[in-house]
Amino acid sequence: MPDSIDFFQKSGLPGTAHLLSALPVPVVLLDVEERFCFANPAAELFLGLSSSTLAQMHLTDLLPEDSRLPALVRQVRAADAPVSDHDLVLHSPRLHREGVAAHGAPLPEMPGAVVLTLQDGSTAQKLDRQLNFRGAARGASAMAAMLAHEVKNPLSGIRGAAQLLEQAASEADRELCVLIQDEADRIRDLVERMDMFSERPLEREAVNIHEVLDHVRRIAATGFAAHLRILEEYDPSLPPVWGNRDQLVQILLNLVKNAAEAVDPREGEIVLTTAYRHGVRLAIPGSRERVHLPLEVTVRDNGPGIAEDVRASLFEPFITTKRGGQGLGLAMVAKLVADHGALIECDSRPGRTVFRLSLAKPPAGAALAQQRARIRQPA
Fold first, then answer.
1. Residue 376 falls inside a structural domain
2. Which of 40, 137, 155, 344 has the fewest Cβ atoms within 10 angstroms?
3. Where do the Histidine kinase domain residues begin and end (predicted)?
4. ∠ at Cα 219 (218, 220), nearest 5°?
5. Does residue 212 sit in the same domain as residue 307?
6. Both 220 and 238 in a single domain?
């Protein structure tokens, strides 16, 4: 790709490159042969490719020729007029985006050229899903509180009565008493598992997410994922995340365990990645405050994917595709993520399932204050 500033100066559009580069919306310029002549930083992030890589490519190197985006570009060129399309699926070995809105317009200073703007229309859907996950978490919390209050006390009475009856019962009746106690214990265990959803104050601090991931990887590699390859693709410059270390371990351990159970035991692969993204800004209900979530952690596997009819309710309690599963693992993940004010998304297709966790940075000065507090602690 030629130097974008020189390119626009020669095209009679000085300063345009600087302006387009500052836009948060992905913008690319295609010449008459549909080669990439310009891509702003937002487009590089959106397409997952650098400007230097795009410079070597045509649009049809990125997407099949019969897909809707190349067709839109040809329509713009044929009509010499702007054309928009919505809810596009950009799918190829290099790229997978759903719900994309595209707008193409001719560039009069460059005959045959088309300026494309791309917007991820799924952002609103992500936020809606996040609100649904929070609602599911609140529902699970209410259920946990109800179960703890209404079930635990009478359950203890039932078990105690069964123990007393066992002492004076016949051999046949003693077996029934033991059965009652065993079932009472099973219900108690289930109630205690549900109790993890109850509302508790969340203590947060600056956490090195790579140390958390290393801890999770060691647990997995010496236990349930000992037979699988676990790869790491980390951004070493990533700043700390603002969270609770133990709960972050719990979140990621659940995601890695789900991935390990989904993949082929012989060819399974799990990839843990971290990256710094511009992130999503979430509005806090009832407040003007918006939370910035630029720190991204992903757990990716090469399993068969998640059925489409399950994805929408994936994080709701008691939704599971596992035989014998209780459907509480991902519901708990949703609850803990909501407690962090973070965002979790799932993108799944055959051969590639990605759980993407977006987290906040520590508030200004929090990491320094935390470091000073540790220095002041007595040895």
1. no
2. 155
3. 146-363
4. 90
5. yes
6. yes
When pLDDT is averaged across residues 116-133 and rounded to a whole number, the result is: 64
What mean pLDDT, rounded, does the chain reach?
Answer: 78
DSSP assignment string, 336-370: HHHHTT-EEEEEEETTEEEEEEEEPPPPTTHHHHH
- Number of domains forming the structure of the chain: 3
Distances (CA, A) of 231 to 11, 254, 274, 276: 46, 17, 12, 19
Whether 155 shows a pLDDT value over 90: the answer reads no
For the chain, the C-alpha Rg in angstroms (whole number) is 27
Q: Which position has the higher pLDDT, 259 or 196? A: 259
> Do 192 and 215 fall within a single domain?
no
Q: Which of 136-140, 225-229, 242-246 has the lowest mean pLDDT?
A: 136-140
Name the pTM for this structure: 0.55
Q: Are residues 330 and 215 in the same domain?
A: yes
Q: Count the Cβ atoms, other than its own, within 10 Å of residue 280.
A: 19
CA 34 to chain centroid, in Å, comes to 33
The confidence score (pLDDT) of residue 101 equals 84
Domain residues for 27?
4-120
- Give one word for 111, left, alpha or beta, with left for phi > 0 and alpha for psi -120 to 50: beta
- DSSP for 158-204? HHHHHHHHHHH--HHHHHHHHHHHHHHHHHHHHHHHHGGGS--PPP-
**Which of residues 73, 94, 120 is at a domain's end?**
120
Q: Nearest Cα to 219, choosing from 249, 182, 261? A: 249
- pLDDT tens digit string along 275-294? 998 655 665 544 455 567 88
